[in-house]
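Appendix B, Record 12. Input sequence as logged:
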Amino acid sequence: MYYHLFIQKYIYNNLKFTTRISNDLGLLLQMELIKYKSQSKLTKSLLIIIFGSIALTISAKIKIPFYPVPMTMQTFVVLLLGLSFGYKIGLSAVGLYLLEGIAGLPVFSNSPERGVGITYFTGPTMGYLIGFLSACYLASFVKFSDNFFKIVIKLFLAVSTIYIFGTIWLGTLIGWDKPIFSLGVEPFLLAETLKLLLISLLAKKLVKLKNFI
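Logged structural output:
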């Protein structure tokens, strides 16, 4: 009888020990998996931020013939970053782009022809450049469930902030007695309308990219 009790106790203790080891291993694996996912997410985010800043530079340099002035795709890329990857990554990419320009890299639209670094940044286009941040942030609030009309309204508000900041700074810099709207907004209205409609049509597909992170 005592022999049977000893065997049962021995088996019970071994099972208890094995269960504890199994639980510890499971917890360790879960922790390693979380750590791997976090590192993977960080790596992806950093790559998107870097490539986002490069895309902004390229879009600033390529001028597409348009009426009444040549068109760049910068505002399109700004909205794309917010839509596709959310405001954290989007703002980081735009912020990196601005810092590169302030540091002296010729990433802005008319640099180095019209200057580089802080001299260019504080010129007539500074308001528009700062507006990239607000536009990117607001674009991130577009949802997959939004209908086309709602998407257009949200993106219109986002783009509008670029021109609000742009005209405020332009008027402050050159004087409010000048035709600020004619100089800083009107020439770009047609191009911005076209880009706004294009990205609105693509918005639902772009929003899905957030799942990549």
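The mean pLDDT is 85.
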